[in-house]
Structures are given as structure tokens and as C-alpha cells.
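Handout, page 2. Input:
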Amino acid sequence: MLYDSVLLVNPSYKNTHFSEPQLHSGLGYIAQSIEDHGIKCEVLDMSVGYDDARLMNVIERFKPALVGFTLMTYRYKDNYARINAVKKKFPGIKVVAGGPHVSLLRQRVLKECGGIDMGVVLEGEEAIVEVCRGEKALKDIKGLVFRDGADVVFNGEREFCTQLDDFSFPRYSKFELDKYPRPNALAKLREIPIVTSRGCPAQCIFCPVKTSIGQKFRFRSAGNILAELRYWYEKGYRTFWIADDNFTLLKERVLELCALIKASGMNELVLGCGNGIRADRVDREILTAMREAGFTTILFGIEGGNDRILKILKKGETIEVIENSIRIAFECGFSVMASFLLGSPGETKSDIEDSFRLASKYPFSEVRFYHPIPYPGTELYDWIEKNGYFIYQPEEYLNEASSLKNRPVYRTPELSESDRQEIFRRAVRLSNEIRINNYSIKLRALGLPGPAAKLLARIYNIRALNGFINKSVLLRKIKDGFN
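Output:
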């Protein structure tokens, strides 16, 4: 065994919208693969509140032979500094990095960060085990970037595993499960992310998925997914969210899964697709089956308010198809959310108004508006770079906490920076009003008069945005007469 012990690290991203701790399913799969092969493994998820001092203390205590970091391109300089500090204090420890940043930039990552000894591109379950076991020379491990003297070598991509059932689903035995937020304050246990597929064949110009996990769609069988749900159900968990990028791509697989769930006796399941599903990959049959199986919440990634913008974004959908799926979802009883981009290539103020009208047309529980973030490797990034439209250079906006919150990082001929800032302020106001309306409807359903419900909903929205109160607590208090 070349490396008999591994510490896996998920860095923290303080003061960003990545701050809230969520179980990292990708790291969970890597940890499970390592454990399955008899290699000692520990996990430090810094997002639950740990700082760099804690990281150093864990390394000092555990004394791993190998430390693995999962990296996003966002805030990559912070993580380079973190890794270099680890290497400086523990020069004998080898460091391997994986995640979307490494999959995107490959050799460049090792050239930019001297503390990284190896990088794993795309799927890492098999490559990391081969590295640890030492039965193959590094040059023979596909999917690996490594240092060969002064050179940085990439061995070429490893073929995707097409049988995802071959990978053990994560048990998260080395994660501190009690440190992650509950879906609401009344839930006794946290929610568990379920990854049922990998890859997305869509061509959206803004999405980095094709470079981070690949476009080839691979999927788990319905029976294998059910086994994971049952594993957690028997441990008392009831709430799960599907973390896929394209969960409903294969209709028959979803229908089979829903039928298995209904026949399983797991009657208290609460499932959601908050990561987004495509409107053109659902119909009444599939949405009805999902609702009957325990799915309660779905998000449609709409992104544009008319067909012209959808075509520019290469969404492969039309507004007619999107609205039809939205209507069916509401008729089936789903809580429906939607997301839009603001400032896509060629988008005008008139196009933005179309997005606002569509967002206001249906009783969404939540609508999210985003400035597109041009990630390297995407068609959007290449277009902005070619035309010189960057307001802030990638090195700047990818490393500042505020860059993903409320400011545009590029301009277009149709919309100036000030135009987009004003549009975003309007979008925030609209998003708040939609959320308030949703809260007030629920409060009125509990018997509160309309004006009082609206007032309390506004109060809750202000406090919720500041993290002071949980909606479920509020609704329960009203239902119980604040006793």
C-alpha cells in the first residue's frame, strides 16, 4: 500500500452563498470508495464551521499519508493558499486535488499551486484507489495529473464508468451528520442528498457541467436508488433531495423508481428536485408518478423569458413547453420554484420584462434571479472574452466573496453595468414579493385573516433573509395559537 491513510477535505467558502453546510455527495462517494478498499479514511468538511487551525490539528492527530482536497474554481486562490500552508507545515504529506476546478484546468492547477502533488480529473472513485494502492505506476493511472520532476503530466481521461451501480452509495460514516442543517426546525434528522445520475447532454452555453462531470449521461438503476433510500429510511431519515443535473432525462427509469417507492412501504418519504429539472423532460404521467411517490418540490431552470433568449442560451426548450410543464406541476400539487438568468447575450430590457412577467404569472413558492457567472470552459465565457465584455477579470470575480451575489461581472451591448444593477434590484424586489405571497397564502390557509397574514408574511420574510426564524416554526406557532 503506497498510501494507507487519507484525509479528505471540503474547504469552507465563508460569506458566500456556498456558506451553508450541505453534505458533499461527491466527497461522500470518494470516501466510500476508499473505505470499501480497506484504506483508512477521515473527512473534514470545513463548511460546518471549521477553520484552518482545525485542519492543521486534524492532520497532526490523524497523520494521513495523503490529503485530498475537493476544489471549485470559485475562490481557488484561497484554497491554493490553504494547500500551500498545509504543505509547508507537513512537507512529507502528499496532496491530491479533485473536483470541478481540477477537471476544468488540469495541468494548470498543479502549475499554479506548488503544494498540489497530484490531481484527479472527472470521476475519482477508481483513480484515487489506484493511487493509494500503489500497484500501478502514476504514469499508468488514467485521469491523473502528476509531477514528473519539473514537468506536469496528464495521463489522459479515464473512461467514464457506465454502470454507476458498481459504485457504493455514500454512507457518510466519516461525516459529522449532526452538523448539517435540518430541512426545517421541526425535523428530527437532516436531509440526505441522493445522486442518481451523472452527466448532462444539454448544450446550455452558461453551464460548466460538461467540463466538470461530462456530457455523457450515466445513471443508476431504480432498484439501486431504492436501496439507498431504504438504507437511510431505516436509520430514521425521511427527507431527501435529488442532486442530479438531469434527473428526469430517462422517463422510464423515473417511472420505475416511483413505482418501487410506492410499493416499498416507505410512506413518509419527502423528496425534492431543488437542483432543477428540464421542463421538456417531464409530462403529466411522470409528474403524477413523482407526486404520488412523495416528491413535493421541484425547480424549473427557465433562465429566459422568451424563445429568442432560450435559443441564444441553447436551452433546447420553448416557452410553450416550459409553461405547459409548469401548469401540470401545479395541477399535480407540487410546490414549484423557478430560476432565471439576467443579462444573457443579446438580452434586452424588453426580454427582461418577459422574464418578470413569466415569474409573476404563476404562484411559484420561490423565484431565483441570477447574474450569469462565466466559468472558464463554457461558451458564455469564450464569447465574453472574445468580445472584451468583462467588467471584472476572471481572476478577480472568481476570487471575491461578493462576485456571486449581486453584481454583474460583464456587460453587453444591450445592457450596461448600471442597467443590469437596476434590473437586479427590481428582480430582488419581485423575488421577495413572490415569497411573501407564498407565505401569506399558507398563513391564510391556517385561518389567519388576509391583512394579518400579509403583514406577518412580510415580517417573516425580513427575518428569514437574516436567518432569524424558520418558516416551519412560524407556521406551527400560528397553528398552535402561539401556545
